Amino acid sequence: MTTPATHGATAAGPADSPTGGPARGPAGASLLVRAATGRPGPYPPVWFMRQAGRSLPEYRALREGSSMLDACRTPDLITEITLQPVRRHGVDAAIFFSDIVVPLVATGVGVDIVPGVGPVVDEPIRDRAAVERLRPLTPDDVPYITEAVRTLTRELGSTPLIGFAGAPFTLASYLVEGGPSRDHARTKALMHDDPSLWHALLERIGGIARTYLAVQIDAGASAVQLFDSWAGALSLADYTEFVLPHSRAVLEPLAGSVPRIHFGVGTGELLVAMRGAGADVVGVDWRVSLDEAARRLGPGAIVQGNLDPALLSASWPVVERAVRRVVAQGRAADGHIFNLGHGVPPDTDPEVLTRIVELVHSLA
Ligand code: CP3
How much is the pTM? Predict the structure, then answer.
């Protein structure tokens, strides 16, 4: 498909970094953009996947009475929820409050987000007719995204806003399985049984993800993250044949616009391939240490991660030791963005997150 908004994203601003990325207003000189472009500051920038969410009482209060999808389509709520963790924790980046299924819903796919479960699809997509019913996303489908990103970049000033999308494989898994899956069996079966249908499906979803990212970049996002959360379920061979070309088709057209972060869980064996998809920064979960990840990635590696989220419920001395280890191991890379190895668990004491930010900032 075509990429209606991509031209704007790739044409923005003068090049001022080794990757050709533009300075995007006051956030262009942020620690996050510097680390992502191989010009690290005195300490790693820190943010947390799922920093906006149920771990915050102010989030739970604001979400009362609205469904997740309605919240994701209401600019005032998006803006306020995105800002909450920045105010509370002093993190070095905001992550846009949305969900990976929002652009699918915007194109008419029947999906709901069920509390405690995740995305659930009305009619799973498993045949050619269903794939052909998927239509491209246009910026006009998501005016609330453009409005919220514009307001946020104004309000955030020098704090960068990270836009995001779900990667083709992870989105395909929800669409084919009909909901969350442990083994992704139907998805893998479709991939191998009917490669031509599989590639048609991923091409369409990839187009939607690419446009969704371009809309956020055009409205002012300083970086983007492509979440391939479940890619770690695949062998390197299957990833390379069935997924990589489609992730690349999302990320490559955005080269030279803003830093591109690419993350998945359990992807230690896929790190090099995922970088090859067009990632400036490779997200690493807690299973592979950052110095080992940097070694696997080779020269110029820029990594994000990777404190085990389970440790957030351990005693502070344990957390502190683990944070110091992550920061020390991250120094093996040419740039490091401190994060968890996956999202903040909903029962996390938010005070621990604030202390981690303070600790990382003290490790100059
Ligand atoms: O703070 C942030 O990180 C930004 C917001 C964000 C959400 N979803 C909000 C959300 C982001 C980046 C996502 C991405 C997302 N959504 C991913 C990729 C990241 C990952 O976690 O691997 C995936 C796989 C999804 C699908 C999804 N949506 C799941 C698994 C869930 C959790 C279901 C549950 O209730 O436990 C959701 C719902 C969701 N998305 C919530 C939030 C804050 C919880 C909904 C609520 O508060 O009621």
Answer: 0.94
